[in-house]
Amino acid sequence: MAETSTPKRGRPRTFDRQAALTAAMRLFWERGYEGVSIGDLTEAMGIRSGSLYAAFGDKKSLFKEVVDVYGRSPVGGFAGVALREEPTAYGAFARILREAAVIYPDPSHPAGCLAIGAATNVTPQDADVRAFLRDLRNRNVDGFEARLREAQRAGELSAQADPRVLADYFATVLQGLSQRAQDGATASQLTAVAELALAAWPTAEG
């Protein structure tokens, strides 16, 4: 009697993880966390739901990884780059606002900032997603404040200026630029707002 061979199992389907994350990022950016279903994600990412769960965990875990990828991209991480690269605090914040005015309305990607707008409206069971982004934004404000305190110690910023208030101010301007971009404001309009906002920079004389 001839032996029957056991059929070999096929190799697990592979996919481009970075491309899948990019597709998920665009979807969350366009629709917000609540506006995206698992079905939407699997279709956009080109994978089955089982592969999504195996590779990324649940929807919340995927979203957090997407936000991390966004924060390390040129369109999401430009503020941190400016803080590190610019020799003066004024130069850093001027660069941040001017780049935001161009990046946020850029038609090559969804308008605004993913970390600002992706979880403005979530259900109570997803409140931790809103808290995750809130904490991320607050850490960014802390980073702004730290840079401003350095500037104050160096004599670049007026001794009478309040670094925390100024950090909150620039964070608020950024959030406003993001929202206006989502509302259809152009780069030239947002640049004019950025320049006006920079006029509030305290002088060395106070």
Structure commentary:
With 206 residues, the protein is mostly helical. It folds into two domains: 17-58, Arc Repressor Mutant, subunit A, CATH 1.10.10.60; 74-199, Tetracycline Repressor, domain 2. The protein is 63% helix and 0% strand. Helix 6 packs antiparallel against helix 10 (187-198). The longest helix has 27 residues, at 127-153. The protein is elongated and about 55 Å long. It starts with 16 loop residues before the first helix and ends in an 8-residue tail after the last helix. This is TetR/AcrR family transcriptional regulator. Residues 37-56 bind DNA. Residues 14-74 form the HTH tetR-type domain. Keywords: DNA-binding, Transcription, Transcription regulation. GO terms for molecular function: DNA binding.
Topology (elements, then pairings):
Layout: H1 17-31, H2 38-45, H3 49-56, H4 59-71, H5 78-85, H6 89-103, H7 114-117, H8 127-153, H9 163-182, H10 187-198
